[in-house]
Fold this sequence. Notes:
- The protein is α/β, with parallel strands linked by helices.
- The chain contains ten helices and six strands.
- A hairpin with a 2-residue loop joins strand 5 (238-240) and strand 6.
Amino acid sequence: MIDQNRREVFLNEMGLGPVWSQRGAAALMELDDAPAPVIPSVVASTPVEKELRVAESPSSAWADIEPAKITAMTPAVTQPIIPVTDVAHMDWEQLKSVVSTCTQCDLCKSRTQTIFGVGDQKARWLFVGEGPGRNEDFQGLPFVGPAGKLLDNMFVAMGMKRGENTYIANIVKCRPTDASKRDRPPAAEEANACMPYLERQIALINPTVIVALGKTAALSLLKLDPATPVSKLRGMVHHYAGLPVIVTYHPAYLLRSPADKSKAWADLCLAMQTYAGSADA
Length: 281
């Protein structure tokens, strides 16, 4: 049993004291002549300060608890918020974190999630599309619908495989839709807002060859006039930041125009020749 004095100490430590008890009539009469009590100012204590005082005071009601079991609370260590302007210095994890919460353009308002990219972070081959569609927005991965299956077949034809020495990304990380909620190409301001993320991905990967899949990817990487058709860019080696860029049709376009698959294969052959030449250099 805890005696009365010890009980009062416990209650005081918990902020529930003092304990009131009924007094006799004589004691009540003495209160009339007693000077007014001095009420000390109340100073708030932090949880850390309170626990430290409990541990240090030998007269505390908690003194019989082993000091080793009373540990001071330490403030949680939070990661510093990295401004978007520091994208060029981010590592992979920082970049993924910033992209996942990006609000640099209005595409963030309608997305299900951001689609960062997928593949080998040290890949020699980088394939860049325009932006995620409905399937990608749902699954969180680029090129997972019918166009993605065709791209996988293109990899096989080149003697490669998704995720092995290949990386797939897009110009924008959120799905662009029109007023009817249908997929559309990203607008110029959307592509410009998202471009620093792709630029950092390219710098981190440092691929041997970049394959631009479709008009949006090609024009965004090469900084060309929006009116430039893909047909004018095919069959030649372009460059982005000193890296060779081969332009071909987007797999979604090839599904609509299967007759142009042979042209796309010629582009991929040029890409493989360029890759071989760069590897030998």
